[in-house]
Specification:
The protein has 3 domains: 87 residues, Beta Barrel (conserved putative lor/sdh protein from methanococcus maripaludis s2 fold); 94 residues, Elongation Factor Tu (Ef-tu), domain 3, CATH 2.40.30.170; 124 residues, OB fold (Dihydrolipoamide Acetyltransferase, E2P) (Beta Barrel). The strands form 5 sheets. It has a 7-stranded antiparallel beta sheet with strand order 13-12-16-2-11-15-14, with helices on one face. It has a 5-stranded antiparallel beta sheet with strand order 17-21-20-19-18, with no helix packed on it. The protein has 364 residues and is α+β, with helices and mostly antiparallel strands. It contains 4 helices and 23 strands. The protein is elongated. Helix 2 packs antiparallel against helix 3.
Length: 364
């Protein structure tokens, strides 16, 4: 019995020593695991952008308003009573189409009278010419007859002209925007009866702030498009027409007029709105003068110098690089030195990164 007890005590001591050794081993291994986790921390996700040659392109968006090429109030050059007004408001007409006419009765009578008088004076002149040749009448009598003939011709021409003035035709392809009088109304000479708007093309006016005006005029325009609420998703190509050189006294903006052919798939009227997109290359980045980068990619050192984070394409480690800033163009800024095409930079969260830090690049 005594021997059994001694064996049991010996086994207990050995077990205790074994458990103690395992505890010490486990205690030694835990700090090593924590150190490895700290060393192999997950890379910080960061939005990046690769610099390319087209980085000099920038986009501006404006709200435009459709304007007529010209708006004209149509009026008769003679007075009378309307007896034809065959057009309706919003109706499109072609150049030369009849849009209004006066009762021609009075002018037809005047024209017939002028023709009769002219023919009579013409016969008198022929007769007096023969008498002058025979020296039956004096030169003075012949000259008086010749004057009467000339006046009759002027009266006839005026009567024919006034007869033509009894009809109004469209001077260009247009939309009837307003009928100013009703049919059968007696109208006076020069009183407007219709208002027309030229729709030979669609013109869109945009207002450009003075800070961007010179830049927009001097930039290398690559593309100008318009999108209309009535046909979303479809862009119509625009061309430049003209711009104002006087700023609006209230908004301090300049008017720029763009144009497009009248589309076949959409009815567009003056007063409608359009979203205008302009893609251009800034004159400040032509050739090797610089490139444009998002302002969010620019960091600022305590000494007020600027920098960007350059991403190593192999290790994804970042390094700080000083850059020279140029003109700020809205969300973009001109970089005149410090980076080259083909390099990758971080474009978001630059204030929270450290030199040598490894990132997980995210596409822009």
């Amino acid at each position: 019995m005594l021997k059994l007890n001694k064996d049991m005590m010996k086994f207990g001591v050995i077990a205790a020593l074994s458990l103690g050794g395992l505890g010490l081993l486990a205690g030694c291994q835990k700090p090593a695991s924590d150190a490895n986790a700290a060393t192999e921390a997950a890379p910080r996700p960061a939005k990046v952008l690769q610099i390319v040659e087209q980085q000099g392109l920038y986009t501006r968006s404006f709200t435009g308003r459709v304007e007529a090429v010209q708006t004209v109030n149509m009026a008769f050059r003679v007075s009378g009573q309307l007896n034809e007004l065959p057009v309706l408001e919003s109706q499109r007409v072609k150049k030369g189409d009849l849009i209004a006419a006066l009762d021609p009765t009075d002018y037809e009578n005047i024209l017939r009278e002028a023709k009769v008088n002219y023919e009579q004076k013409k016969l008198d002149l022929q007769r007096y010419d023969e008498l002058l040749k025979k020296q039956v009448i004096s030169q003075g009598a012949f000259d008086k007859t010749r004057t009467a003939y000339d006046l009759a011709k002027v009266t006839l021409d005026k009567a024919e002209q006034n007869m033509g003035y009894t009809k109004l035709v469209a001077p260009f392809d247009a939309i009837i925007t307003k009928r100013l009088v009703d049919n059968f109304t007696t109208v006076g000479q020069g009183n407007a009866v219709l208002r027309l708007q030229d729709v030979s093309e669609v013109q869109i006016d945009i207002n450009v702030p003075e800070t961007l005006f010179a830049q927009a005029i001097n930039s290398d325009l690559r593309s100008m498009t318009a999108e209309f609420p009535a046909n979303p998703g479809k862009a119509y190509q625009l061309t430049y027409r003209e711009h104002s050189t006087e700023a609006d006294p209230v908004t301090q903006t300049y008017r720029v007029t763009l144009a497009m052919p009248y589309p076949n798939d959409l009815s567009i009227f003056p007063g409608m709105t359009a979203s205008v997109r302009i893609d251009a290359r800034s004159p400040h980045v032509a050739g090797n003068d610089g490139i444009l980068l998002p302002t969010s990619a620019i960091g600022m050192n305590p000494d007020k110098t600027s920098f960007v984070w350059i991403v190593n394409g192999t290790t994804n480690a970042i390094s700080k690089r000083a850059v020279q800033l140029g003109q700020v163009l809205g969300p973009l800024v001109t970089i005149s030195g410090g980076v080259d095409a083909g390099e990758t930079i971080v474009v978001a969260g630059v204030a929270h990164l450290q030199d040598g830090q490894v990132i997980q690049p995210l596409g822009n």
